Amino acid sequence: MSNKPALHRDGRDRVIAELFALEAAGVDLDGTLFSVAAEASGYSVRHLRRLVAALRAARHDRELQTEAKDGWLLDGEVVNEVARCSGNLAKAYRNLKATKNLPSLATFQRKVNSLLGQHAMTVIRHGDGKARSRRVYLKRDPGERGHTYETDHTECPIYVIPTGHKRATRPYITVVVDHATRYVLSLVITFGTPSAEEVRVAFISAILERTAADGHTRVGGLPFRIVWDQGKDFLSTLVTESCLRLGTTPSPLPPYSPNLKGRCERFWRTFKGNCLASLPGYIDSGTDVRGTLHRAQYALSEVAFVERVTAWLDWYNTEHVVRTLGMTPLQAWQADPRDLVTVPADQLWCDFLLSDSKATVSVQGVRWKSLDYVTLHGELDRLIGKQVEVRYLPHMRDFIEVFHDGKHVGTAYPSDHLQPEDQEAFLKQRRADQARALKNVSSVKRIHKQDPDTSKLHKRKLPGGKFAYEVDVPDDDLRTGQSDALDSYRPRRDDNGFDEHGQGLLV
């Protein structure tokens, strides 16, 4: 406390001097150092902080007074002239020297840079946007996995040829990143500025619980909140209502605050430098003497681009070590014991991106985007010949969601790309459905067989390659049944003796 006896002041002054010595050596005066100094001197941490701040202010005032004695002071006139010259200190020096007593140019430049600081000088020279890299930011508590998801999209510096087009264009990518673990839960590729529906798809695919690239870790789940910037697609009523309906809190960030979603911003730098920079069509690699882009002589197709980006994303999540975490995003996700908040799939399907695509179910399944899709449990068998609605992720061809009359039929996968276990599940379900159908027919056969008025039919081959169905008639033995055998060949006659043709008996 400040009213301690005078005998304690020597210890106070000693620890204050030690703190200033540490600061001069480049050590940050954090709470731990102040706690140690408070314990050694008997004064509170708050009191020591006030003393250090007061001594700093007094030292700054002494420096200003010293500069004033030299004949000039960094006053408003000097600052205004430096700002008017856009940070050109040599020009500001020439303009001020006629009216002020200034030291040498080198001393003037050193003093202005020292007193204004890098941030203020960068604002003067390049504006506030460029000056963000010259500021000190507080570290944010990473929290628990699944608490906060950050989302953002960017136009990629690469040319890609969309499917069905001949003109190359720059794709947009929307990502959703878990704030605590840096795990990228969703990556959606679109050609053209993402719409609110496509942003909503990125959210839904991040929330959808599934297996990670290692084959056993469950990722996804509903977060407590989702943060994004002031983009109109993010602020749309459609996206806000979807988040509220699912039970998560939409949290728009203040304007011009990219540092509040720093996980996404850092991911973009890694993604562009580590993934896109090695691909054909990259446009941030400079130009030749004719102004032609070095890497834009060739471009990937949409399918190839999606495959390479997806493979890189699996590497990033499972193998890339994040420096601040000291582990991969997947390891950070696995190290957090917090349970995932699961959302029923039926509730998610209601918010999936709706497509205008209609397809007719055939024996090959659902034909969509030049691929045949089938369900693994025979849901399409009852819809052969009927039209269904297809819902899908903008860049994903690995699966589609099939709807009929507004109801979810099932998830369909490309029949040419099924895994062996999926093929076995498909064939097993088909055999089970066939056995169930045959069992129904067998029960009918048994009922018909027990009917005393029926006879069993047999397939007989006729001359000319035709077939007929006949009953089995036992062969009559003419030695024992001569009259019966003969009667079978005699025409039947009525009571007057006429046959079916009206012919009577010949006498």
Automatic annotation (TrEMBL):
The lineage's top-level taxon is: Bacteria
Q: Which SUPFAM superfamilies match?
A: Ribonuclease H-like (SSF53098)
Q: Name one Pfam family in it.
A: Mu-transpos_C
Q: Which PANTHER family match?
A: TRANSPOSASE RV3428C-RELATED
Bias type Basic and acidic residues, positions: 487-507
Residues in domain Integrase catalytic?
138-337
Protein name from the UniProt record:
Mu transposase C-terminal domain-containing protein
Enumerate the residue ranges of region (Disordered). Answer: 442-461, 471-507
